[in-house]
Design a protein that fits this description.
23 strands; five-stranded antiparallel beta sheet; alpha/beta; seven-stranded mixed beta sheet
């Protein structure tokens, strides 16, 4: 049978674009559909604009630190509309770059929502297209809890387009998105309250990391309401939002913004999966170790399969898929020792097993090395900031099972450490490495 394309990709986010371009490099005829802007969540409503806002949020502390180093006090006012404008200008610039990359790769782009007609056919508006292989790369989207008045709350999608800076902000949820935006807003001058249903944020991360970040956020003035549920949200006459909490007449007030950061789910609505053999589980596409679904002609990568929802993971999944099916290089994605970062204040990063995971797997053989100290930078600046570093080791093999850090430049440091952990480095290899002095990173090779 003759098809319009060798591969057709639904979703032009990180995973979809990576797959399309790599397949096209191998000579495949590729089409891609996107209903929104090119680049997906990361470029438009995630990693990129968020990190730019993180940078902006740090300047208030840097201005104060400068005084300890001999600079005169800086009197500066923050301009929220300017930040929002320049951040979105950068997003627009990146959209153009993605378009040029796809054009250069001879990938044909279709604007609109693609829906499966059958296993080899999609419909985009009034146009029908066929492909030998189909790829689902539609990503995920934020979800709001089912609470009365939740229509007054925004999600992480809308925060990049707020016209005015909130004076008082309430963040619902203790996952990485919620805590990152809580830190951003606080650094930019908002009063911030975080409401979580448990006693600690960041479930799934190492317990020491969770505690250190939460304590650091509190030191920076972020208020936490733990073991607390929001029962309803009301909009007051003055435009503020009143959040009613479980407990004796407990409330919280937000200045026209309540950020619901209580999770994300795969963006599968209206995709027409019922017209294929693709199966889902807990709202995610089911795919095997080669990212093939139950329908032999349909594959899936990225957040829609809900494995490790990180941009570099989606990109690698896509490239592995293209290598296997169009490049003659059959291989599988490895999900072991994938590093990740939290762009909170304080920043954190991690790779490998948490202490709890290691003890469950290796029992009493686990040995933990910790170092907690005040970075040299703050000795003159005066801020009470701490850095925590942690190595988790299998004492029987001396292999480093996990590395975790809370502190400035954690992401940059752990990226290098992750190479060693991925290669199976031993604690003796860390010990034999000469440190760079004076630096925080040298602690990873001096812990005893």
């Amino acid at each position: 049978m003759s098809y319009d394309f060798d591969l057709f990709v639904i979703g032009a986010g990180s995973g979809g674009i990576a797959t399309a371009r790599r397949a096209a490099e191998y000579g495949a005829k590729v089409g891609i559909a996107e209903v929104d802007r090119l680049g997906g969540t990361c470029v438009n409503r995630g990693c990129v604009p968020k990190k730019l806002m993180v940078y902006s949020s740090h300047f208030s502390d840097l201005f104060r630190d400068a005084v300890g180093y001999g600079w005169s006090p800086v009197e500066s006012e923050f301009d929220w509309p300017k930040l929002i404008r320049v951040v979105n200008d950068e997003v627009t610039r990146l959209n153009g770059i993605y378009q040029r990359m796809l054009d250069k790769s001879n990938v044909e782009v279709f604007e609109g929502y693609a829906k499966f007609v059958d296993s080899h056919t999609v419909q985009i508006g009034d146009r029908t297209l066929t492909a030998e292989k189909m790829l689902i790369a539609v990503g995920g989207k934020p979800i709001k809890p089912d609470i009365p008045g939740m229509e007054h709350a925004i999600t992480s999608n809308e925060i990049f387009h707020l016209k005015e800076q909130p004076k008082q902000a309430v963040v619902l949820g203790g996952g990485y998105i919620g805590v990152e935006f809580a830190c951003i807003l606080k650094g930019l001058g908002s009063e911030v309250t975080v409401i979580i249903r448990r006693d600690k944020i960041l479930r799934g991360f190492d317990d020491d990391i969770r505690a250190e970040i939460q304590e650091g956020m509190q030191r920076h003035g972020i208020r936490f309401l733990t073991n607390t549920n929001v029962t309803s949200i009301e909009q007051l006459d003055n435009g503020k939002l009143k959040l009613n909490l479980d407990g004796e007449e407990e409330t919280a007030i937000a200045d026209a913004i309540s950020l619901a950061a209580t999770g994300r789910k795969p963006n599968l609505e209206g995709l027409g999966l019922e017209n294929t053999e693709v199966k889902t589980h807990n709202g995610a596409v089911v795919a095997d170790s080669y990212n093939q679904t139950d329908d032999p002609s349909i594959f899936a990568v990225g957040d829609c399969i809900d494995r490790i929802n990180l941009t570099p993971v989606a990109i690698n999944e896509g490239r592995v898929l293209a290598d296997t099916h169009f490049g003659g290089k059959s291989r599988q994605m490895s999900y072991e020792n994938v590093p990740t970062a939290l762009f909170t204040t304080p920043e954190a990063a991690t790779v490998g097993l948490t202490e709890a995971e290691a003890r469950e797997k290796y029992g009493d053989a686990v040995k933990v090395f910790r170092s907690k100290f005040r970075p040299m930078y703050h000795t003159l600046g005066g801020r009470e900031e701490k850095t925590l570093m942690k190595l988790i080791v299998d004492s029987e093999t001396d292999r480093v099972l996990g590395a975790h850090m809370v502190g400035e430049n954690a992401a940059e440091i752990i990226q290098g450490v992750a190479i060693a952990v991925k290669m199976g480095a031993r604690k003796a290899d860390f010990d034999a490495t000469v440190g760079i002095h004076p630096s925080s990173a040298e602690e990873f090779v001096t812990m005893r």
